[in-house]
Design brief:
alpha+beta, four-stranded mixed β-sheet
Amino acid sequence: MAKLKLDLHDIYNRGGKIDTELNRIIQEAVDKRIALVEIIPGKGSGQLKKRVLRFLNQSHIRALYHRVEKDDRNFGRIFVHFRH
């Protein structure tokens, strides 16, 4: 199974860049018919994870994927599953 990975540790403090990268990885998964995207906001205070979840919950983004899974063993990781 093909998987894409986006680590947000390097850009956690650049707001516009975060949305740009999230859009890019979701679009790449759709274009290449990738089944799974792993997004790593990190543990920290949880604010970046909340921001990623808000981004994924936008109606035009939500229409592109099947479901979101929060890793129960690693708080700082989110999986986005696609059905193509």
